[in-house]
Amino acid sequence: MTPSPGTPGEGRGGGLDRPKAVTIMPDPRLTRFARDLRKNSTDAERRIWSYLRANRLGGHTFRRQHPVAGYIADFYCHAARLVIELDGGQHATAEGVAYDECRTAAMAAVGVHVIRFSDHDALKSSDAVAQTILREVENRLTNRPPP
User: What is the chain's Cα-based Rg?
Assistant: First the structure.
């Protein structure tokens, strides 16, 4: 880095030039779609969100229906770079499986890990799903590779 013009090392303009942060604006269509999905959550999403919202799960912050890598994730923990997906019956078809593989690959390409649960498990074994999510978040935060 090179000194910027001005009084060297003192006050405004006297520090080092810093690279400007690159801001990637989310696609406004995805943002609108995510907002609509938040308003129309499935029963399974509402159940798991009751565990994740307001930092209830181990103090970790989650976002719901959040754009990630051009897709909308059901839940996203930015600190752990972790997506949680709840899959209904449509995900069991050949087309659904192929689509999910593309989503997972796109997210992995930007360093985000995806874990999936069936809607059935989310509704019938909510505590176990929440504990699995908590273990995965804490594992990713503990064993996170350097950037």
Answer: 20
